[in-house]
Amino acid sequence: RSVIGTSSLRRAAQLKKKFPQLEFRDIRGNLNTRLKKLDEKEDFSAIILAAAGLKRMGWENRIGQLLSPEDCLYAVGQGALAVEVRAKDQEILNMVSALHDADTVLRCIAERAFMKRLEGGCSVPVAVNTMLKDGQLYLTGAVYSLDGSDSLKETMQTSVNYPQQNEDGPNDDVQHVGITAKNVPGQAQEAAENLGVELATLLLSKGAKHILSVARQLNDAR
Q: Is the pTM for the entire model greater than 0.85?
């Protein structure tokens, strides 16, 4: 049967569930190395890579199929760029605040809050998808067993349609799951964080902790 190469537990778990007839094997290395393994060895029928990296390298012709969110959710914060600065350094915070993309800030806060509440990490298959539309933030989150046979997936939404207020003073450097965004309404950031926490709490109430515990133990035993 066809063998698919991926270095991601999260991708393998999701795709095993959707395509049980395929075999998934670990593949490592940078883009060049992985593509070379695909081309020169007969081990893999296809490999799964982030499309952004291929596009950045000008290798879009190597993309055979793009996976939709229905096929494969992404990792928390995947593709987002952040600038790390000293906490409470107002001068630098003011300087970098010009770089903020409000949609990305809110999506990342929700995703990171979801992961934090689940106590997930890169050693367990936790996946998300976020979307902002008409002032509503939608968060889909899921957890999977390593073989994809056991999973929980839910979607929740919240309004983030709040005006920017003058928030100078003691709360002007409030962090939400490690993110400080001075030019994004504080109420919207709080709503995004609450959304992530609430979705994770819902999954935990349905048994997510057990799925993640088993996945972590199996992965550690590899």
A: yes
DSSP per-residue codes, 146-194: TTSSSEEEEEEEEE---------STTTT--BTTB--TTS-HHHHHHHHH
Cβ–Cβ < 8 Å for 63, 53 = no
Instruction: List, in sequence order, every residue forming a beta bridge with 140; answer none if it has no partner.
Output: 129, 155
Instruction: Print the SS3 string covering 22-42.
Output: CEEECCCCCHHHHHHHHHHCC
**pLDDT value at residue 172:** 57
Distance CA 191, CA 194 (A): 5
CA angle 66, 70, 76 (to 5 degrees): 85
Partners of 47 in beta bridges: 5
Helix-strand-coil split of the chain, %, nearest 5: 40, 15, 45
Q: CA Rg, the chain, in Å?
A: 19
The answer to whether 82 and 105 have CB atoms below 8 angstroms apart is no
Please name the amino acid found at residue 133. Answer: K
Q: What are the tens digits of pLDDT across the range 148-206?
A: 889 999 999 999 999 877 655 545 568 899 999 988 999 999 999 999 999 999 999 99
CA atoms within 13 A on the CB side of 187: 10
Residue 71 DSSP one-character state: T
Cα–Cα distance between 172 and 97 in angstroms, integer? Answer: 12
